[in-house]
Amino acid sequence: MADVKKRILKIAKLLRIAAIVSKVFVIIAIVVTVLQIVASFSLNAPIFQGLYDGNLNDIESLLGESAVFTGLVESGTLRGIDPVFRKAIELFITLSSLIVLLGYISFFKRLVTHILKEQQPFSLETAKRMRKGSYALLLLVLVNPVLGLLMFLLMRFFSLIFEYGAYLQEKADKTNRIQEEVIVSLAEITESKSEQTGQHIKRVSEYSRILATQMGLGEEAVEKLRLASTMHDLGKLMIPSEILDKPGRLTDEEFAVIKKHPGYGEHLLHSVEGDTMTLARTIALEHHERVDGRGYPNGEHGEEISLEGRIVAVADVYDALTSRRSYKEAWDSRRAYDEIVKGSGTQFDAQVVEAFKAAYAEIDATRQKYADVA
Ligand SMILES: [Fe+2]
Ligand SMILES: [Fe+2]
Fold first, then answer.
1. What are phi and psi of 77, to 5 degrees?
2. Does residue 178 fall inside a structural domain?
3. Rg (CA), the chain
């Protein structure tokens, strides 16, 4: 999947350059044609005379060689008209064709730009606009029936593609929504089983989103992380409730059982497919790792831990600190902030901590927004 995406983005980049270059050429041709029109009306004016006799003839002959323009000029309707007006009418036809061409190129460029920004280019709204726009193209039929009809049909064809694209996208969105609902349900089941009542999962996923955005991850990657992080404690489903819900401190043996939840989470998700689910598996496994290698379950160091795992580690601990637990009161957010900063480079990735510091105001606002109701 990633390869396909890379290839599409590469092609889109090239197409965008081609669109920009052709746009420049068409705009030059439009300017030249306008000048020619003015010149053809003012053949006597020395400035236009000079222009008309000079370079412009070259461009005119260049355009004249293309089949479309020759067809336009030779449509026959212009015979018997004063040569100066005939020339002007010919040029107007050229001009209108160039403007339509510019419209097509601009539209194409927009489409490619959408793809490059990884936005969904198809929409019912665009399809509707294109259908309406196609009627304007019918005006060209008055000038040249073949060209007019061709442009009209082409635009209708594009509108159909856009409608179909929008339909497919809607279906994909629905599938994604269902997947998201399943993920959220799984997360909620985990939450209801553990003593972390309230909005722990919501907050951790929101903090992760904020941190990832602050670190410059792309929109799609951020959204994937937001969703995948909701399943970080999935493995707690396998931990006996007596241990999870035990009031007060845990014994060493009990804590050893708790420490198994990352491995259980990974195991529960071991056969899943899809980017978000595989990321969820990684996060479930790694969210208690520390960059100094003293975390669990595998004692991974630094960048052996995925970036997402390092992000969720900060989000999860900050939320644990600022929430009430059976064995402790909720810390005030400044104290928790200091604790996270203190762990930079040992418990937490220093870059994630920098992002945490930079985005702290937003993180704290999110904490208040999704605060647990007592
Ligand atoms: Fe956990
Ligand atoms: Fe957690």
1. -70, -15
2. no
3. 32
Q: Are 69 and 61 in contact (CB under 8 A)?
A: no
User: Coil, strand, or helix at residue 45?
Assistant: coil
**Residue tagged active-site, from 109, 193, 236, 342:** 236
In three-state secondary structure terms, 173 is helix
Q: Which ligand is nearest to the CA of 204?
A: 2
CA distance 282 to 278: 6
- What is the Å distance from ligand 1's center to 299 Cα? 15
Nearest-angstrom CA–CA distance, 283 and 313: 9
Distance 359 CA to ligand 1 centre (A): 23
End residue of a domain, out of 80, 98, 121: 121
> Which of 24, 27, 25, 52 minimizes the C-alpha distance to 38?
52
β strands within the chain, DSSP E? none
User: How many angstroms separate the CA atoms of 108 and 131, rounded?
Assistant: 16
Each residue's pLDDT expressed in tens, for the chain with a length of 374 residues: 567 878 888 898 999 999 999 999 999 999 988 887 777 666 555 544 555 555 545 545 545 544 455 555 555 455 555 666 667 677 777 888 888 888 888 888 888 888 888 777 788 888 898 899 888 888 878 777 887 888 899 899 989 998 999 999 898 888 888 888 888 888 888 877 765 555 888 899 999 999 999 999 988 899 999 999 999 999 998 988 888 888 878 899 999 999 999 999 999 988 877 788 889 999 999 999 999 999 999 999 999 999 999 999 999 999 999 988 777 888 999 999 999 999 999 999 999 999 999 999 999 999 999 887 75
Identify which ligand lies nearest to the alpha carbon of 287. Answer: 1
Q: Domain range for residue 40?
A: 2-121
Residue at a domain's end among 79, 99, 121:
121
Ligand 2 center to residue 328 CA distance, Å? 16
User: pTM of the full predicted structure?
Assistant: 0.63
Structural domain includes residue 356 = yes
Which ligand is in closest contact with the Cα of 187?
A: 2
In the residue annotation, 342 being an active-site residue is answered as no
Inside any domain, residue 257: yes
CB 320 within 8 A of CB 287: no
150 burial type by CB count under 10 A (0-12 exposed, 13-18 middle, 19+ buried): middle
Query: Could you tell me if 308 and 207 lie in one domain?
Result: yes
